[in-house]
Amino acid sequence: MRAAGRAHHPTRQLVDDLMSRWFGSRRFEWLDVGVVGMVDYERLRARLEFRYTGADLSESVAEDSRDYLRRPDDRVVVWDIEDAPAAELRGRLDLVTLRHVVNHCEGYERPIAHAAELLRPGGRVVVVLHLALVDGPDQLLRHHDWDVAGEVIGNRYGRAGFFTAFTTLFEQPLWVRVDDGHKPNDLIVGRKRAEPLSGGQPLPPMHRLRMSTGRRNLPRRLLGRARLRLLARGR
Predict the structure, then answer these.
(1) Beta strand 184-192 pairing with 170-179
(2) Can you give the pTM of this predicted structure?
(3) CATH node for 4-233
């Protein structure tokens, strides 16, 4: 189940810096949906002070993930973000991360709404889409490279519809499109509104970053990392 390579994905550097800026040394409540490899937990446990709840669809993944937990109040549960959240978690969390999860859902409205239910007012959500938002209607695309149980369909969401749903519930949206040389990822960050809006806000500006791999692309990677840090500093 290990996926250590994901620890080096460029979106993670930005999220790490944002988490450090948001919380510093303050203890926070974190729900991490899609715990693949526990790479985020292991990397951040030494740097930040949090109580961790991991969630995954697979009981076997959850069972394996529990071997990496370091504190007695940390846990991993079996849960689908498309299902109603547990009452014990609603309105209690400071951070919900949905990395490479929402594209596997049938739609984005329920995952976004459930994340908002879980957060305290002012709490943060991080969404990473491994298929970038499109300039048109939502699409369901078959990806033959993903023809394994549970992953035969990949959703691609239209930008306008996604952000209408997102900005109804979250303010101060940050939208970064990161091209890692394989396929572009969209990273969207927001803070829960005290009260939902009746309609979403205009699309926020998109920051484009090219983070190619390989030694030949080292200058571009270093420039991309510097821009990531500037974006985090502005949040």
Answers:
(1) antiparallel
(2) 0.88
(3) 3.40.50.150
